């Protein structure tokens, strides 16, 4: 039996309906993280314009890159106001999917406030797969799904 794991899709009820028409959905995993934690995590990212190194202020809080010495910057997508706007869009378009999949008895929720390795292990356990398999299947499935869904939210 073949399985696939799709991340970041569907993002709307229309996309969920389209996906259900293509394949049987056995489970939807919701990684639940409070808004304040998301804003803190994302807006704490810093990038080096020269070598591309990435940092988080919780682990490295210096203004310059430790690899090349360039001044670090915050990407526009990582600014708190942009993150809050993305969360607002999520709440309007994607949040309804939680109820959609819950009503179908397919929703599993994982506490995303935990350390990344714990969250990953919980997802792997839900999928009853070793973590490397989950990640490999995720990357292949994501490429296929993005190609299918690209540019058409109404599907």
Quick structural overview:
The chain has six helices and four strands. The protein has 155 residues and is mostly helical. The relative contact order is 0.20.
Structure description:
The chain is mainly alpha-helical. Helices cover 46% and strands 10% of the residues. It has a two-stranded parallel ribbon with strand order 1-4. The protein has a two-stranded antiparallel ribbon with strand order 2-3. α2 crosses α3 (80-93). It is elongated, with a radius of gyration of 18 Å.
Unreliable parts: 151-155
Q: Could you estimate the helical fraction of the residues in percent?
A: 40-55%
Helix vs. strand class: mainly alpha
Distance between the termini: 27 Å
Q: What spatial order of strands do you see in the largest sheet?
A: 1-4
Shape: elongated
Radius of gyration from the alpha-carbon trace, in angstroms: 18 Å
Number of beta strands:
4
Mean pLDDT: 83
Number of helices: 6
Could you state the order of secondary-structure elements as H and E? HEHEEHHEHH
Largest sheet: 2 strands, parallel
Tell me what portion of residues adopts beta-strand conformation: 5-15%
